[in-house]
Amino acid sequence: MKVGFIGAGKVALAMGNYWLSKGVAILGYSSRNMDSAQKHAVLTNTRAFTSPAALAEEATLIMITTSDDAILSVAETLAGFSLPWEQKIVCHMSGAHSSQLLSSLSDKGATICSFHPMISFGTVPMSGFNLDKAFFTFEGTGQRLKDIESFLHFLGHRYELIDPDQKVLYHTAACVLSNYFVTLLNTGMQMLKRSGISQENMMDCLKPLIEKTWENVLKTGPESAMTGPISRGDARTIQLHLESLLKEGRSDWLEIYKTMGKATVELAVQAGRIDPETADNLYKELQ
Ligand SMILES: NC(=O)c1ccc[n+]([C@@H]2O[C@H](COP(=O)([O-])OP(=O)(O)OC[C@H]3O[C@@H](n4cnc5c(N)ncnc54)[C@H](OP(=O)(O)O)[C@@H]3O)[C@@H](O)[C@H]2O)c1
User: Fold this and answer.
1) For the chain, how many structural domains are there in total?
2) Pick from 148, 166, 184: which residue ends a domain?
3) 128 and 30 in a common domain
4) How far is the CA of 54 from the centre of ligand 1 (A)?
5) DSSP codes joined into one string, 10-40
6) What is the CATH number of the domain that holds 158?
7) If you measure from the C-alpha of residue 70 to the centroid of ligand 1, how many angstroms do you get, rounded to a whole number?
8) Ligand 1 centre and the CA of 256: distance in Å?
């Protein structure tokens, strides 16, 4: 497959580098701004294309890696060009949208696909850092969809076909697991700071706690990994936590604590750690 990227951003650069390292033929980049396409082409030693049509003419796997909001219009623009679409696979990489965004191209005979790595690209600039460990989901329609599965197989990834109607929920989960996890960590760090832990010791203070928790979840799952006052049914400790947050005057922290606390009560019941009466009392404290 000859791969071309439309939309020269973070994901396109990381995927391009990663696939090159695996021996995949990358033709190059086209983007809204020629400068971006050129920059990516230089960084990957590939080519910059002056238009999406020029790239689509040569590529057999066309990756639309623009922002989500631009995917539909890029697909519709491409569909306006007379190309042998039945020979081409067009994918976008949005986690939230299904391949239906590309239906103008399947109408022309192309195989269409949404192709999503469950990984955060952040600001890591060049490398395909950790991409070989990424889990992928994909779905689509067309006679060449099997080629996408073979491609993922060739790259050695774990992957799963996803129901297009469940993509939004799938992406909501990704958002909770990654983005909101970062926010939760940040909230805990702010509380530690208020409690007097110095900035200098912050990471040393929280790293073993987080690493051990994460290790336990990976080993045994959330039910067995849970510890803390709710799993012990220590209602008085929960009252003290709530009082301390009230004293700080941080209603945002209080909201987060109560919401997470109620979800933790549910988990503790599910795990058989606390009886329904204890759960009821804890739940009332957290209202
Ligand atoms: N970031 C992540 O962690 C992550 C993870 C999984 C999937 N994804 C998905 O991957 C896709 C790309 O995300 P990203 O983080 O790489 O975004 P990004 O860094 O913002 O890059 C998107 C690029 O698309 C270009 N672009 C925008 N509109 C365009 C148009 N109409 N025609 C051509 N190029 C256009 C822009 O390039 P110019 O400089 O030329 O304006 C921009 O640099 C999205 O669908 C996203 O949902 C992202």
Assistant:
1) 2
2) 166
3) yes
4) 19
5) HHHHHHHHHHHHTT-EEEEEE-SSHHHHHHH
6) 3.40.50.720
7) 9
8) 31
Q: Encode burial over 150-187: b for 16+ CB neighbours within 10 A, e otherwise.
A: ebbeebeeebeebeeeebeebbeebeeeeeeeeeeeeb
Q: What is the pLDDT along the chain (287 residues), one digit of tens a residue?
A: 999 999 999 999 999 999 999 999 999 999 999 999 999 999 999 999 999 999 999 999 999 999 999 999 999 999 999 999 999 999 999 999 999 999 999 999 999 999 999 998 876 554 556 788 899 999 999 999 999 999 999 999 999 999 999 999 999 999 999 999 999 999 999 999 999 999 999 999 999 999 999 999 999 999 999 999 999 999 999 999 999 999 999 999 999 999 999 999 999 999 999 999 999 999 999 99
114: containing domain: 2-166
**Are residues 174 and 157 located together in one domain of the fold?**
no
* Residues whose beta carbon lies within 6 Å of some atom of ligand 1: 6-12, 31-33, 36, 65-68, 70, 74, 92-95, 116-117, 120-121
